[in-house]
Write a structure and sequence with these properties.
About 70% of the residues lie in helices and about 5% in strands. The chain has about 450 residues and is mostly helical. The protein is globular, with a radius of gyration of 23 Å.
Length: about 450
């Protein structure tokens, strides 16, 4: 029964999102991402990972009814706030243009950040040289070798990637080129998420600036080639995890085998990230996990508190309990997370309903600020964080999500401070004139 109810509302909400005359926004991504990440719900079964005698095996299991109810709550929360947003815009006769104007100070601050990022990347490549340019690419070994400088280099890379494509005026082509170079570094480090999330932020702004596009369906009709590229790109996002090692190694034969092999493609599909996340949610609900990780929500926003306390003040207790309960024999690698599962584990169904609405409200508030008239970097700060809330959230825990938002705030505030440090042109001309006449 719950499967039928879920499928009905899922298709209904998806049709509204696609055909309704409205500007693209991150709530649209919220709805579409839920459908993508939980596509195994359409099948009714999922394959659960296990380790027996050191070998990874997969066992097919039925998806629990509670999983359909959890996904339904998530989608209906997004649909409710989408309706609220649409109605309020009609009443207020307001539509955010999402125009990004960049002044001289913002461009100079961008150059300073690019210089700092170049130095960080150079240090990172030297530090990870043996893992990046060895005979084989081992992502697990590379991740274990990464330090704080590597992590910040990748965070700043996505921020500058988004910034580079939003800068207008003098030097905008060079800014785009710099952004592409920096995001390529994240791919070299074995991360596909930074590129995907960055493209998502840039894509939403681009869509909102198209005057003749008033719905996702209208976009598909008006921009057929771009739409086709997106349709091809979306499944490639999840397949990229398998083909990225071959790309980095330059192994064309291995790449050809992954793409052309029917059995390999089927394995990648059935063991893809959405399949794993759906299984995580189903098993979390089936085992009725109980944790209290939300006690540390506010503490997690204090700078460095989780790191400096060694995890004692802000422990990652959900992930630890989840892994040992759902995958007791999987100890050599992680299985991702489940935001919906964590919400349920903290407050049962009430907790899940509350968190679904909290996330939607956060998306609306951050998006409104990003389309406002604040400093360029403060707007990019929220714009870069929004894809984590709207799309990437399904495999996250609250601690991960809070950490990503916190990091984007650090970078955005740094950019804002750099803007303040750049002297105004009129003030600089006044100083120059005073020096000449003095």
């Amino acid at each position: 029964m719950w499967k039928t109810i879920y499928l009905f509302f899922c298709i209904t909400v998806l049709l509204y999102t696609v055909f309704k005359k409205r500007k693209a926004d991150f709530l649209s991504i919220y709805i579409v991402s839920a459908v993508i990440y939980y596509w195994p719900l359409f099948l009714g079964t999922v394959e659960k990972c296990d380790v027996i005698d050191g070998m990874r095996v997969f066992n097919q299991i039925e998806i629990s009814d509670m999983t359909y109810l959890a996904a339904l709550i998530w989608i209906l929360a997004g649909f409710y706030w989408m309706l609220v947003s649409d109605i309020s815009r009609v009443r207020l006769k307001a539509e955010y243009t999402a125009a990004f104007q960049t002044d001289r100070r913002s461009r100079i601050a961008f150059i300073v950040l690019c210089a700092a990022e170049t130095g960080l990347i150079a240090v990172s490549i030297v530090h990870n040289h043996a893992f990046l340019f060895g005979s084989t690419f081992n992502k697990v070994a590379l991740l274990n070798n990464q330090n704080m400088a590597d992590e910040w280099a990748m965070r700043i890379a996505i921020f500058l990637f988004v910034s580079g494509f939003l800068i207008k005026g003098k030097g905008e082509r060079i800014a785009k080129l710099c952004g592409c170079v920096f995001i390529s570094y994240t791919l070299l480090m074995g991360s596909r998420s930074h590129l995907v999330l960055g493209l998502m932020a840039i894509g939403i702004i681009w869509l909102r600036q198209q005057k003749n596009v008033h719905s996702l369906w209208g976009f598909a009709k008006e921009k057929k080639k771009v739409f086709l590229m997106i349709v091809v790109f979306i499944p490639m996002v999840f397949l990229l995890k398998e083909i990225l090692p071959s790309l980095i190694e330059g192994d064309l034969e291995g790449l050809k085998h992954v793409i052309l092999s029917d059995s390999r493609r089927n394995d990648m599909l059935m063991h893809s990230e959405p399949a794993i996340i759906t299984c995580n949610l189903s098993e979390t609900l089936r085992n009725r996990l109980e944790v209290q990780s939300y006690r540390y929500v506010l503490l997690s926003f204090l700078p460095g508190i989780g790191t400096l306390s060694g995890g004692r003040i802000v422990p990652a207790d959900f992930y630890e309990k989840f892994q040992e309960t759902v995958y007791p024999r999987v100890t050599q690698f992680g299985m991702g997370g489940t935001f919906l599962g964590e919400a349920y584990a903290n407050g049962w169904w009430i907790g899940l309903v509350i968190m679904a609405n909290v996330i939607c409200i956060c998306i609306l508030l951050m998006e409104r600020y990003a389309y406002g008239k604040a400093n360029f970097f403060l707007r990019v700060m929220f714009l870069t964080a929004l894809p984590y809330f709207a799309f990437y959230i399904h495999r996250q825990t609250w601690a991960n999500l809070a950490s990503e938002l916190q990091n984007m705030i650090y970078i955005g505030v740094l950019g804002y401070i750099l803007c303040l440090m750049v002297p105004d042109r009129r003030l600089a001309d006044g100083w120059r004139l005073q020096k000449d006449t003095g």
